């Protein structure tokens, strides 16, 4: 089967195209590593990265990301480049294993302490039966109806070539079932309150919504480059994630079905230090043990991920379709918008009226002061004084 690639990503912008030929990928990766090492040596203010003195910091200048790029927020992309094409290559070589082949990796669970332990150790956890079969059906029915209507209107977003995957963005505008699930109402997701409690632990109270969209992956679709979902943030990362991408599995996830590929444990070390820094050997992580796996989960599971964990959409090789909803949440101080979710600043009045106070807060569109003070003139103040 010819592999098609999904270039969209829920929280990292557009992903690069996967090169096709095996050998050239390998060669390019090596060439890339060599050139990066050379460039590092040629930097005019190259300072020993292990020198932690004030003098060294001042010589480096304002270089909070990598000391090279003036668009520092793009810097994790430089580190991730070494993984270009690797998911495709490992899939073709049959080297990606199902996560349930590893006893120690997260399993679907309902105990919060165990879920937290999985999340800390592996960078993801699986909330078991987070939606009942009826709740899943209600979401899939609405999603497929919306997806068909968007295709009929010729406004569908096809994310893999030959229409093997479709993304239905801005679900908050597209049905009460989605709005209810996004704010974890038990009527839409029976273990929504548990998901909410976990996300609150990850990001603190009043976390925001980055995007909520439907992901429809047919045979031959779904493959993405490996990435992290906080690539917009400069490195080095602090010892906590900026957000969490959660995936509501509407159909079963496993290798053949196009489950998310993920490198368990790639988000941090035991001390909390980040894995992402200049010179990090990410290939070693991908090829190690457990390495890159396909996250197995029955329909109804909610996958919570740390935005620092290496992962990407997996290729569906089986016949049929994988349905899911992906929601990206951010810490409250992060502006709640996203390249596929202009929803947060273009909400039609008819939908605005239906949004709960919490959803408005999550989307960053609550009116916190209905009578703000505007531009004042000196006599305005004089008139106002007694
Ligand atoms: O759909 C998936 O399995 C993962 C998608 C993903 O990582 C993303 O869109 O950022
Ligand atoms: Fe992602």
Instruction: Write the CATH architecture name.
Output: Sandwich
- Identify every distinct bound molecule in the structure, by name, code or SMILES: 2-oxoglutaric acid, fe (ii) ion
Helical content class: 25-40%
SS content category = alpha+beta
User: Order of strands across the widest beta sheet?
Assistant: 2-3-10-7-12-6-5-4
Strand % is 5-15%
Tell me the number of strands.
Answer: 12
CATH superfamily: q2cbj1_9rhob like domain
CATH fold type: Jelly Rolls
Q: How many independent structural domains?
A: 1
Can you identify the CATH class? Mainly Beta
Indicate the overall shape.
globular
Low-confidence stretches: none
Number of helices: 12
Radius of gyration: 22 Å
| Average residue pLDDT | 87
Give the topology.
Blueprint: H1 22-42, H2 54-60, H3 75-80, H4 86-92, E1 97-98, E2 108-109, H5 112-122, E3 124-127, H6 133-152, E4 157-160, E5 165-168, H7 176-182, H8 192-203, E6 208-218, E7 243-249, E8 261-262, H9 282-287, E9 293-294, E10 302-306, E11 311-312, E12 321-330, H10 349-352, H11 357-363, H12 378-384
Parallel strand pairs: 1-9, 2-3
Antiparallel strand pairs: 3-10, 4-5, 5-6, 6-12, 7-10, 7-12, 8-9, 8-11
The site of 2-oxoglutaric acid (AKG) has 11 residues, from β11.
């Amino acid at each position: 089967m010819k592999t098609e690639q999904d270039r969209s990503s829920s929280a990292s912008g557009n992903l690069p195209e996967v090169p096709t030929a095996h050998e050239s990928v390998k060669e390019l990766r090596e060439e890339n590593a060599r050139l990066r090492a050379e460039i590092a040596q040629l930097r005019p203010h190259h300072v020993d990265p292990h020198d932690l003195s004030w003098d060294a910091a001042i010589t480096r200048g304002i270089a909070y990301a990598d000391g090279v790029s003036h668009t520092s927020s793009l810097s994790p992309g430089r580190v991730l480049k070494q993984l270009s094409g690797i998911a495709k290559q490992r899939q073709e070589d049959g080297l990606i294993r199902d996560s349930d082949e590893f006893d120690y990796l997260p399993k679907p669970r309902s105990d919060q302490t165990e879920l937290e332990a999985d999340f800390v150790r592996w960078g993801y956890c699986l909330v078991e039966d987070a939606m009942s079969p009826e709740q899943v059906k209600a979401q899939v029915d609405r999603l497929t109806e919306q997806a068909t209507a968007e295709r009929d209107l010729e406004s569908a977003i096809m994310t893999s070539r030959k229409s093997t995957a479709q993304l239905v963005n801005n679900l908050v505008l597209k049905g009460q079932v989605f709005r209810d699930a996004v704010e974890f109402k038990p009527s839409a997701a029976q273990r929504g309150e548990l998901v909410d409690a976990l996300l609150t632990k990850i990001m603190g109270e009043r976390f925001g919504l980055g995007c909520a969209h439907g992901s429809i992956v047919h045979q031959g679709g779904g493959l993405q480059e490996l990435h992290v979902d906080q690539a917009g943030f400069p490195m080095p990362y602090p010892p906590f994630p900026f957000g969490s991408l959660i995936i509501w599995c509407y159909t079963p996830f496993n290798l053949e079905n196009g489950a998310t590929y993920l490198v368990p444990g790639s988000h941090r070390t035991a001390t909390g230090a980040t894995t992402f820094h200049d010179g990090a050997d990410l290939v070693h992580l991908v090829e190690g043990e457990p390495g890159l796996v396909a996250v197995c989960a029955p329909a109804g599971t909610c996958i919570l991920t740390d935005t620092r964990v290496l992962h990407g959409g997996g290729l569906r090789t089986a016949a049929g379709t994988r349905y899911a909803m992906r929601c990206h949440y951010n810490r409250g101080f992060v502006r709640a918008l996203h390249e596929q979710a202009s929803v947060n600043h273009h909400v039609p009045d008819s939908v605005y009226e239906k949004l709960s106070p919490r959803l408005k807060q999550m989307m960053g569109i609550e009116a916190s002061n209905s009578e703000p003070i505007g531009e004042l003139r000196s006599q305005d103040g004089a008139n106002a004084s007694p």
